[in-house]
Automatic annotation (TrEMBL):
Cited SUPFAM superfamilies: FMN-linked oxidoreductases (SSF51395)
UniProt key word Aminoacyl-tRNA synthetase: no
Taxonomic source organism: Priestia flexa
Gene Ontology molecular function, alphabetical: FMN binding; oxidoreductase activity
Keywords carried by this UniProt record: Flavoprotein, Oxidoreductase
Name the UniProt record assigns to this protein: NADH-dependent flavin oxidoreductase
Taxonomic lineage from the root: Bacteria, Bacillati, Bacillota, Bacilli, Bacillales
Length: 367
């Protein structure tokens, strides 16, 4: 193994004692190959079997917590007890490989509008469409908010029963929790809207609900992570300085780690108090090792991954590299060159970001 890449293979231990065999994570990939009923397919199993064997942790999902929270065809579900049975096969496979498994649990909110049954309405914090020409969702009332909290609780119970080593709450990518925290998507006048504290309150309730289930359901080490989009594009959206305040709150809630969802690890912001800065490194500097930070985004070469770890990133997501070369980790360990096609230059990545229209940009640029 190239000595300069030793940091990739150093162990990492979370506060509660769960130890990772290296710093490499296979983050979520939208395979869209689960069964129509949300059950993990044999195709999913084969895809992961080939790619996860050498990483320390795999994050699967996002898995929708109820029928009304689905955001794409072929999406994995955690909304019914029967889906946990197939997921147990997956976690058992990962355990044989000494790989920790995390299930990302999610509700799409307004993003679910086009995937509902005829006559059903999507729900969101406010009646704000998230896509151009999209249907306006129904504003969640308090009983529906309680129902959604219960759905997160049941999803967590199923994840524990299925043998996962943790859950990761989807708080970004334009999904329901980000819709609540976003100034653009949340126009409520009650305790869930208005001030930053109020807009964060639903996410805090979800975290506390999930934490309570973990405490009451299992005695084994079990991680609770929170995924978030660190900066919203478009006028008036949350910026990196807002995210830093939010992460301070997550630390108080004793979340085990924060997963920063970015297209490029080197994406820049001009909305930081210190001027132009790369988003992820700026947040890492603010956090100052008070909580583990997981991130990635367009990191294909071992040198790029090594530099991210040297920059104090706790663990690095490399699902894009593993998608291209399932043997990426093994090859790096043997000092062989992985296949990663043409690695895009930073300028190309930034140009791509300007024209690509993924879910979160639809939400935050088109409101």
């Amino acid at each position: 193994m190239n000595a300069s890449y030793e940091k990739l293979f150093k162990h990492f231990k979370f506060v509660h004692g769960m130890e990772m065999k290296n710093r490499l994570v296979m983050g979520p990939l939208f395979t869209q190959s689960s069964h129509e009923n949300g059950e993990l397919s044999d195709k999913d199993m084969a895809f992961y079997r080939e790619r996860i064997k050498d990483v320390s942790m795999v994050i699967v999902g996002p898995a929708y917590i109820e029928e009304g929270g689905k955001t794409m065809d072929g999406q994995l579900g955690i909304h019914r007890d029967y889906v946990a049975r197939k997921l147990h096969e997956f976690t058992a496979m990962a355990k044989r490989m000494k790989v920790k498994t995390i299930l990302r649990i999610s509700h799409g909110g307004a993003l679910s509008a086009e995937y509902l049954k005829v006559g059903d309405e999507a729900v969101a914090p406010s009646r704000v469409a998230v896509r151009r020409k999209g249907k306006k969702p129904k504003e969640l009332n308090e009983p529906q908010i309680d129902h959604t909290l219960h759905a997160f609780a049941r999803a967590t119970e199923r994840a524990i029963q299925a043998g996962f080593d943790g859950v990761e709450i989807e708080g970004g990518s334009g999904h329901l929790l980000q819709q609540f925290t976003s100034k653009q998507a949340n126009h409520r006048k009650d305790t869930f809207g208005g001030t930053a504290e109020n807009r964060l309150s639903f996410s805090i309730q979800v975290i506390r609900t999930v934490s309570k289930v973990i405490k009451n359901t299992t005695n084994r080490p079990f991680l609770l992570g929170y995924a978030m989009t660190p900066e919203e594009k478009g006028y008036g959206g949350n910026k990196v300085d807002d995210t830093m305040v939010w992460i301070d709150q997550l630390i108080e809630e004793k979340v085990d780690y924060v997963h920063l969802e970015v297209k490029s690890f080197h994406a820049k912001t001009t909305h930081h108090k210190e001027g132009e800065a790369e988003v992820v490194p700026a947040i890492i500097k603010h956090v100052n090792q008070r909580i583990p930070i997981i991130s990635g985004g367009n990191l294909f070469t071992p040198l790029q991954v090594e530099e991210a770890i040297r920059g104090k990133l706790s663990m690095v997501t490399i699902q894009q590299a593993l998608n291209l070369d399932p043997y990426w980790v093994e090859k790096v360990r043997r000092s062989e060159e992985p296949f990663y096609g043409k690695v895009p230059e930073l300028e190309e990545v930034e140009a791509y970001q300007k024209v690509d229209s993924n879910e979160v940009e639809d939400l935050l640029e088109e409101l």
